[in-house]
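User: I'm writing a tutorial on reading structure tokens. Could you give me a worked example: one chain, its sequence, then its tokens, then a sentence or two explaining what the tokens reveal?
Assistant: Sure. Here is the example chain.
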Amino acid sequence: MIWLYRFLFLPLLLIAAPYYLWRMRRRGGYAEGFWHRFGEVPALPPKQAGVKRIWLQAVSVGEMLAITPLLEAFKRDGGVEVYLTTTTSTGYKLAKEKYAGLVAGIGYFPLDFWAFNARAWKKVQPDLCILMEGERWPEHVHQARARGVPVVSVNARMSDKSYRRSLRFRAFMRPLAEGMAQVLCSSKRDERRFESLGFSREKLQTTGNLKLDVSIPAMADAEKVSLRSELGLPDGLILLGSSTWPGEETALITALKSARDRGLNVSLLIVPRHAERREELRGLLEKTGLKFHFRSDGLAPHTVDVAVGDTTGELRKFTQLADVVFAGKSLAPHEGGQTPVEAAVLGKPVLHGPRMSNFHEIIRTLTEAGAVRKVETHSELIAVTVELLQDSAQRDRLAAAARAWHAANRGATERTLAAIRQQLNK
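And here are its predicted structure tokens:
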């Protein structure tokens, strides 16, 4: 099966290359480390006797933030060094800023073609590979198996879309099922899905979601005041659109206007999922008659109605300013949803649309805890947003339920570390 995958990979890559090159250029930031994708690994220190090397792949920002406790634990334990890779330019930038002192090297994950992947393997020479969440690469797993290196899938999840696709191409899942040493699932639902795809029961374990163990340092009141000023946000309530997609910003702007029509003192903070959409958003805001400011333009010269957080790695800070949060990519025509975890951890009232398939289990438990509200349409988002902005008691109930939910769902980090240590000690 690996030979069929290799045969198909290169022509499919060539077909897809123009789109991905265009997207990389549009998003920017890919020039540094570009050749890592072809197996050119950044300089790593020579391997030391008694020190095991882990190759850890975390695709983007969300996964990068989730691995913090793992990297800190490896550093404390000693006897382990980590080569950390990512796929996106935002993930790479965050890794360089946040983890330079915790890892032996940082690079981009190679394209999963035989020549590129094998070249990287010869240079990295890991003793253990960790793949975060939805990362499942047949060539990478094959290279590990050929070298006798265990691969552990951590925080493993299977979205509805991925599951449907995997069922259609079940034959390609068999080498992955055989090549992975262990799959540490984020929920029982994910574990059942992996089992139905041919992963043996002995390799499956539900350890919980690492993202629920997240610890976000609280900003001091003075920091919040300073950040509001930098963004141009005046005193009053703040509605946050968290990782929004096209169409959702329009609904949030309408919600802002509707709330103000009811006499509410409220401003809007939009954090688009893709910062390169800033010019699209600028065009949208120019038509509204509202005053606005983009974070990437520096300090706001005056107060505004709408601030746009078009920077990387600041969403957690922005969330601490919010009174109501909408989790983006959850209203039609979009699908999958963006994470509601950080907002819930910070005790914020969270709204989400019906299309949260990437966070099915998290949304289920948040809903059972009474910590979120679901809206079905753009018009319902507008109505419920205004309702929450008017009702401080309802906001307080949602916030308290979110904090209680977080306290009750911690512990994934220690369970995950125990499983990884067991693999390292074999």
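What the tokens reveal: The chain has two domains: 32-208+411-424, 221-407. Residues 2-27 form the longest helix (26 residues).
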